User: What shape does this take?
Amino acid sequence: MKHVALKTLLLLPLGWMMLTAPGLAEEKPVVAPPELDPVSGMKMAENWELVRIHCTVCHSPQQYLRQKGNASTWTETIRWMQKSGGLWPLTQETETKIVTYLAQNYGPDEAFRRAPLSGYLMPVNPYGSEAKREFEDKKKSGALPPTPPPQ
Ligand code: HEC
Assistant: This one.
């Protein structure tokens, strides 16, 4: 009995140290990136085969693997595909799965295009002033041929 108690006493501080060791509690679990399918180059994450079935009939997967977008961008892409690319109607469930796969695996990241600059951050456009004035002057003086009528 005495022996067990002594052991517990010795182990207690050790357990306490392990629980409170700095960094241990905050450590995030390391998630391995999904493997790539050697044929299509697609990330083999959940529902990747569903996306491959629907999206590689008409073109290479590179058409969408090189794009990045959030769920709304990908939904727009699918609508555009349906309107002008000939993509068939999808059930809501299938569309959600495709959009979720694309947004999670090909979503915006650091390499995503930046948003356009606001107008007040843009430099003065020289073509809007001097060159335009010169063009208008030449036009007025008859130095330029008249604009052809619309066909
Ligand atoms: C029935 C044929 C068809 C299917 C199926 C199809 N696409 Fe397309 N896709 C096209 C065509 C045609 C174009 C070229 C359209 C253009 O450039 O005007 C295109 C172009 C694209 C582009 C543009 C690439 C670029 O250079 O900007 C993306 C992105 C895209 N498809 C994604 C998808 C996704 C995601 C799916 C699956 C949900 C899909 N496509 C399924 C026919 C299809």
